[in-house]
């Protein structure tokens, strides 16, 4: 019985040794104290303990790897379009571009193979690598449009521009398309009600932006109570969504 147990342990150890992998690391060192030179044709001087003290010059294990250049086979959001040569970190390239088959290694043959044809150049689908990401970000938020509670107003594109700037987006007024129906106030019946406007990016992509009216007064006693995380609460539509002219 003991012989069988010993033989099993030996076999397990033999199989485990085959799974070990060598770690290839290189450390560049230099002596802290240089040994003295010896005369020609004489026996070298015996080195002391201090001569075996080394200082680390470079550890290749933690050395930053250079970027890798690849050719994109198709449009990749946030990276580039088909045929573009991009330079990115090796870890990102392997996991997000090479393994999914979205890119290939940079060679003259691959550059010529995946370059855009004249038809593909004329049919522009994306204005830039980051335009689609911007559309997704705009469509994922609910914009708070703060309007005056005391003075009359009519909603204009510059109101949306100012609200976007506070939310971290910079947009020109000519890129903002408001609903055709006139929105004016102050009107507390429109408080926290939702409407949509269209944001045009680079004259190509369009994002549907959700907005909500919030009234604000300079008099602290006239201000409405603050609603925590109001964008998570359900809201009624401000305009008649059944009307074809309510928005574009």
UniProtKB/TrEMBL annotation:
GO biological process: translation
Keyword Ligase on entry: no
Residue ranges of every copy of the Ribosomal protein L9 domain listed in the record: 68-114
GO cellular component: ribonucleoprotein complex; ribosome
GO terms, molecular function: structural constituent of ribosome
Family, per entry: Belongs to the bacterial ribosomal protein bL9 family.
Organism: Drosophila busckii
Gene3D superfamilies according to UniProt: Ribosomal protein L9, N-terminal domain
Domain of life: Eukaryota
Protein's name according to its UniProt entry: Large ribosomal subunit protein bL9m
UniProt-listed PANTHER family: 50S RIBOSOMAL PROTEIN L9 (PTHR21368)
Annotated keywords: Ribonucleoprotein, Ribosomal protein
């Amino acid at each position: 019985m003991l012989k069988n147990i010993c033989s099993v342990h030996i076999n397990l150890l033999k199989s485990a040794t085959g799974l070990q992998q060598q770690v290839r690391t290189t450390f560049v060192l230099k002596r802290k104290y240089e040994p003295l030179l010896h005369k020609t044709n004489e026996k070298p001087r015996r080195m002391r303990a201090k001569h075996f003290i080394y200082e680390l010059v470079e550890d290749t294990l933690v050395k930053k790897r250079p970027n890798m250049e690849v050719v994109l086979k198709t449009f990749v959001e946030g990276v580039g379009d088909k045929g573009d040569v991009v330079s990115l970190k090796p870890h990102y390239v392997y996991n997000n571009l090479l393994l999914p088959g979205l890119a290939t290694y940079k060679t003259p043959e691959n550059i010529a193979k995946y370059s855009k044809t004249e038809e593909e150049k004329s049919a522009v689908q994306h204005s830039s690598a980051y335009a689609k990401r911007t559309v997704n970000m705009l469509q994922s938020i609910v914009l708070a449009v703060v309007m005056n509670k005391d003075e009359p107003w009519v909603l204009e594109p510059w109101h949306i521009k100012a609200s976007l700037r506070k939310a971290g987006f910079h947009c020109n007024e000519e890129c903002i398309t408001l609903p055709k129906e006139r929105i004016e106030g102050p009107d507390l019946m429109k408080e926290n009600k939702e409407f949509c406007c269209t944001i045009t990016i680079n004259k190509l992509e369009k994002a549907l932006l959700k907005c909500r009216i919030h009234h604000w007064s300079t008099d602290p006693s006239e201000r409405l109570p603050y609603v925590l995380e109001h964008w998570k609460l359900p809201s009624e539509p401000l305009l008649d969504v059944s009307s074809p002219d309510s928005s574009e």
